[in-house]
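Hello again, I could really use a second opinion on something today. My current little project is about how a certain protein chain folds up. You're getting the sequence in one-letter code plus the fold written as tokens. Here's the protein in full, and shout if anything looks odd to you:
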Amino acid sequence: MAIQAGKTTTVTQGPGQEEPPDTGGTGAGDRHKLTALQGLSALSLDAMASVAYGPESIVLVLAAAGAHGMGFTLPVTLAIAALLAVLVASYRQVIAAFPDGGGSYAVARRHLGRRTSLVAAASLILDYVLNVAVSVTAGVAALTSAFPGLHGDRVWICLAVLVLVTAVNLRGVVDSAKAFLVPTALFVGSILAMITVGLFRDGPVSTASAAGHASALGEGATTVGALLLLKAFAAGCSALTGVEAVANAVPSFRAPAVRRAQRTEVALGALLGIMLIGLSVLIGRFHLQPVEGVTVLAQLADASFGHNAAFYVVQFATMVLLALAANTSFGGLPVLMSLLARDNHLPHVFALKADRQVHRHGVVWLALVSAVLLVLSGGDTNTLVPLFAIGVFVGFTICQVGMVRHWYGERPKGWRAKAALNGFGALLTGVSAVVVTATKFTEGAWLIVLALPLIVLAFERIHRAYAEIGERLELGRVPQPPHRAHSLVVVPVSGLSRLTCQALTAARSLGDEVLAVTVTHPTAEDRQAAEALRRDWELWNPDVELIEVASEKRAVGRPVSAYVRKLAQTHPDAQVTVLIPETEPARLWQRMLQNQRGSVVAHAVRRDTDAVICRLRFRLGAQAAPKVFDASLTES
């Protein structure tokens, strides 16, 4: 913004610059936003990929009760599908009621209070970060299973996949959606084809993939207890992660954003439900038994298609989609972080958008934290899975309760039915959150229980810091009228040059009084240099006083800042400005040749004084003598 004569002029930003997020609407920016189909590709990979491990999680728990327990695979899956239907219906309502995105955080912020909304936000952040790590490690695990020689390099492969997904998302959410559309379509198409073909089979075509592997089926059990069913339900609920991503990222859709996001949410729920139920039916139809070292999905592909090219297509599509499922987090979390930043719970830099509608800082932060998790876990999926899906159910429950309050307060037509739906969903997800946490507590879930309050405390501390800054700046109040103060401009110099002339010319145009300051040292060589500068200065006679500041130590920054501090004390009503002249080389590599004296002086003055710092850059590549100021005048 340029301010002149009481008027405000908006300066258009150039390519590559970041700007505050827009307020929506149509226009040129819409080409960087999602259609419903692209939204399904960009924001549903987590949920879609969960069919690779959701049914398997159920089977592995029920296998402890033997063949009798395996008979409950379909009922447990139907219970999860019912919960999925409730969640999809609820999040359609969330999308309509909160078109600015944010999901459970936005709902809780309005209806349940700030503290509860922060718990929802913290839970979603944990889930999104873990989703990236789990998805990448699961995809790489599928690759190393096919090529065991790569097992020792799995951490580096995980990091390479993470870099790939991050780079695509830095180009924009639309580019990521286009890049991942084909893998998503290939995976969904292969799973649906496998289910369709399997339903027409009387028995498995092949069991080659499971041959020679030890069975994980328990023996001798004749009853299935409620606790086992609850554990199976909790394990299978990992298939529901990612359902909330569309509601979190509504602003990423093209106008009409609400309608497109709702269509995406319904399509996601329908596809996920069909695939989960279809796979469970095939598990019962083929009397599948879990075996060590072979996934349930691989056995189902073998049974439906046979051990042929179609089998390997399913495995390849699964591997790719699992690795790319991290994209859901890159689509949802940066938008959530931008809302938290707007509410002063995260640094404001997370609210900035690049020119391709990318929350670049959120994307980079997510990638860095995920990379740390990948390294600490050694690229092992089993280390991360017990931490997964807990946070998302906390967010689910808070969101449902908040929507009940929303309908009770708004009371539109049919509000009782909508509130009842959300209330029922809150009951189901609340029970699920307790069950998932209790059954996985000793497996690592205690880390999530510990991390949640710590993240909330961090949010609160950031919020208090911004409140203190706002109080000091008197934000929200009408300030006193501006007045003109006597201006003192200090120019550090070390010799006479064209740069010195430019600096004094600029200083005299800025201030009422200009003082040139040079730092002298006691050595004989330095005394000679100081005498030569004084003699040349008198001959030049620029009508600017040259002040010599003696320093026993060979330092520049501290002596200048000490003089500026003393000057401010002797002239309390004056505005002191330090103008630092610097050369700017024509080529990047030439910057290594600079002595960085300007940066040293600027750092010392900023640290020790309240003076305004102005850095004048003399561009060495220019043909004519430039008169260039760094427009970013900074005040400590």
